[in-house]
């Protein structure tokens, strides 16, 4: 899916160490941050920003006030990559230096990017995902947001035929559990309430370090506090190896009853061409197991529309499986051939017009299911963790299953607090509630 940019914000953390050319004369610079793509990419971009602030440089809220721009790039589909390149050129007109981080620096050589973005007035620097280091200890007197992201690993063991992220991030490289726990403890000590553990496949964490996700969670749950952990995306074939113990750990109220399990296609023939290591029914069986244990589970999944060779019958199989699984969230992406991937060379391309039609159908189904599920919460009283400001005078809270509940006309001082709410109304992708 194409992700939206994250608006610049003051993270207020002491900054980690990164090897990067900061300024030609060693002077203090003012830098502006934009981050695109997945939660992990946003977390890594924040780590780079932390490094810059640790070195004494100041973050500002707009490129007009900056001499340097840091942009965390995403290249998951071709449209997104082109958007990144346009934005880099726009930033070059506003600042004297652009630091390009995220996945773009890993799929193109520095020389090629410099050629594409040549500018007589704007310096260009690179920062790849492999360069990002875990942040150093936090300072007690700094303001830390209620939501924290900890990238726990980079890369994966997969070989999906459509994926360019593997080129950008390479094989699995897990961060040491002791560094993750240190970061976790520091965030919790500063009243961060929601911690997001992110990587390409959370179920793979630690396999290169003779540990696993379950052992990491056990370590983190030793930390006392009234916080919530959101475990990021996992794949069926890797999750099944840790599933039983993972489900036991999920019974702890501090872990959201949330599962992000990509489907990609409901057709086994398409899954085979994608080189996904599971069947459509295998995915469905996994969902049933989790729902049997966690009836209120919030399920998120991903669907690729128009993969080479996807027939109308294949697409209908995807729709039928989505109807059966009834996921709360479906990230719908039209297939985009990425240079160098096996899928880019495959025949039987699906016409863009047909991809658009199918994408619209799947999106309409997704919102229909989500609205129906949300309506089942109306009238329920439940605990919710207030995390951030929403639009207008609203606050955004999360139920224990990660559902969003919007509270209106409430004091901002509730942010970071657990409150009892009654759900009053259902929207397509969120609930509206009132504090009891």
Would you write up a description of this structure?
- The protein is an alpha/beta fold.
- It has 3 domains: 30-131, Rossmann fold, CATH 3.40.50.12160; 147-375, pyruvate-formate lyase- activating enzyme, CATH 3.80.30; 381-435, Nucleic acid-binding proteins (OB fold (Dihydrolipoamide Acetyltransferase, E2P)), CATH 2.40.50.140.
- It is built from 13 helices and 18 strands.
- Helix 2 (78-92) links the parallel strand 3 (68-73) and strand 4 (97-102).
- Helix 12 (312-325) runs parallel beside helix 13 (352-375).
- It is globular.
CATH architecture of the largest domain: Alpha-Beta Horseshoe
- Main sheet attributes: strand count, strand direction, barrel closure: 5 strands, parallel
Low-confidence stretches: 1-24, 136-142
Give me the CATH fold name of the largest domain.
pyruvate-formate lyase- activating enzyme
Total number of distinct structural domains: 3
Helical element count? 13
How helix-rich are the residues, as a percent range?
25-40%
Mean pLDDT: 86
Structural class, please?
alpha/beta
Ends: how far apart? 37 Å
